[in-house]
Design a protein that fits this description.
eight-stranded mixed sheet, 8 strands, alpha+beta
Length: 196
């Protein structure tokens, strides 16, 4: 079973933390028990997903620019266009309150067909973050609808959407807490790429 978390040296860079986050997420994708049928071969499908997750490598930079949470959502289709599975990967930045026993970290969870299959997991480090989730404040979704991709795998295809969130202001957020529940995925429209 893939490890769920890792603790870095207190002086490790946030770039190193983002790499460790990517490694943990890819470890779960590589799990033999993670079944993603109907799109292409198991190896080709998982390799395509890991390639698409390049954004995780840049989370330290995205976080410095104000991003506190990111989602990658994948829809896997067989050659006849039938949806086979939906995979949602969420990662975020957290600076626990002073009274907490936790330290600053990047966290992640993974959902297959709205069921959690990995996480919550963490990359613990010594740096305090400038941008992180704050209880009671909503979030603003950035760059809505521009991070859509589609790629072929074997005889099937994978559609991908990326959602980027910055900390909101009281009363000024455009995303609600309920959107962050695992079942919220079914309410997020799949990209059509010209299909009806």
């Amino acid at each position: 079973m893939a490890p769920v978390e890792t603790t870095l040296a207190s002086d490790a860079s946030l770039t190193t933390a983002a790499q460790a986050l990517y490694d943990l997420i890819c470890g779960h994708i590589n799990e033999p028990t993670l079944s993603l049928p109907g799109v292409g071969s198991r190896a080709a499908t998982k390799d395509a997903l890991k390639d698409a997750l390049w954004r995780v490598h840049h989370f330290s930079q995205d976080n410095r620019e104000g991003m506190i949470e990111m989602w990658m959502i994948f829809w896997g289709y067989r050659s006849d266009g039938q949806l086979q599975w939906t995979l949602k990967i969420v990662w975020d930045a957290d600076n626990p309150v002073v009274a907490s026993t936790q330290t600053p970290h990047y966290g992640y969870e993974m959902y297959l067909n709205n069921r959690r299959v990995a996480g919550p997991g963490h990359v613990w480090f010594g740096h305090h973050l400038t941008h992180y989730r704050v209880a009671g404040l909503g979030v603003n979704e950035e760059e809505i609808g521009v991070n859509l991709k589609q790629f072929s795998v074997g005889t099937g295809r994978i559609d991908q959407a990326v959602r980027l969130f910055k900390l909101g202001r009281p009363g000024g957020a455009n995303a609600r807490e309920g959107e962050f529940a695992p079942q919220a995925l079914v309410n997020y429209a799949r990209p059509s790429f010209g299909r009806v």
